[in-house]
Amino acid sequence: MRNATVPVAVLGGGIAGAAACITLAAAGLRPLWIAPLGRGGDKPGEHLAPAAWPLLSKLGSSDLVARSYHRPAGITFSSWGSDHLAERHSMVHLEGPATVLNRMRFEADLADRALNLDVERISAPVAQVSRQDDVWHLQVGDTRLRTFFLLDATGRTAFVARSRASRFRADRLAALVGFLEQDPQAEVVPTRATLVEATASGWWYVTLLADDRLALNHYTDPDLIPFGSSKAQALLDRLSQETRYVGRWIDEAGFRFVTPIKATSAGTTWVAPAAGIGWAAIGDAAAAFDPLSSHGMTTALWTAIAGAEASVAALSGDLRPLAAYATKVATGVQEFLSSQREIYRREQRFLNEPFWKRRHSQHASNTLQDDT
């Protein structure tokens, strides 16, 4: 076993972990990044909102979204609250268009940016963690680690934060995620656009990626997924029959599934407070929002930067930024919940359906003991 002492340790990979490490390195610290290697493969959540541009600039990483495997999000079509298809173009936004990301490539590029700043990364999982005499003690692989501050970027599991704060959930939204490729014999040139469509069982998000694959997400509640089918392909085929536009786009353009369908949690969860003595939650560990907001990745970047900056101040004895950070996260959560309720209530066509009935009457007040 080797022993190590570092001022700050960042637990968890992804966007928040990488952004926190970049921020800490820029402040003159050399954080230890404890981030087990992911399973790889594509990830949902492709839209990066324009609100992220100042954050990427602060990280010195604005160039990452200009790479060829991303594309500007010029046009969005939506059928929400109406059978008609509404069109929204990015030219109406003064800050410019959002970006449709290849999420896997973006995360890898941001991680490379952090590692190029001489950030040390350990890919082993954390076996033990405890806090004694104002110091965190961790066992990570063959390393016994002491650190004075922990940044929890472990996603919805909130590995450290869940034992230090109360955990809340607004809903149990789930996502079925798949990627499709077009039949080479198809004669239709697919539109480089994004489509959002509300249906009786939930809502759909479909977007054409820069590599011409179609990313398809269906959001619903776990108990509303018909488990009678053992094949995910057949399941999504049946669900797509309820759509007016999504199924038509897939069929007429000749798209076919090329990867297994995955199910993942997509509900709104958060911890409160999001920071305490010697620790702060960032990214989804702090607050994970319903993807309807399109601000999940922006939130991950902001919490990573603000949480890392607060940790630097805390190490120097100033705890005020840490308290301010926790307050801002709490305020942001409440603002999101209010906005979320308003958006869901705009959909009045399916009021008798369980998915929509829940969202027209829900109140986020349940403390979580377990996120499974």
Automatic annotation (TrEMBL):
Domain of life, per UniProt, equals: Bacteria
Name by which UniProt lists this protein? Glycine oxidase maturase GoxB
InterPro entries, from UniProt?
FAD/NAD-bd_sf, Flavin-dep_Halogenase_NPB
**Source organism of this protein record:** Microvirga puerhi
Read off the SUPFAM superfamilies from this record. FAD/NAD(P)-binding domain
- Gene3D superfamilies per the UniProt record, alphabetical: 3.30.9.100, FAD/NAD(P)-binding domain
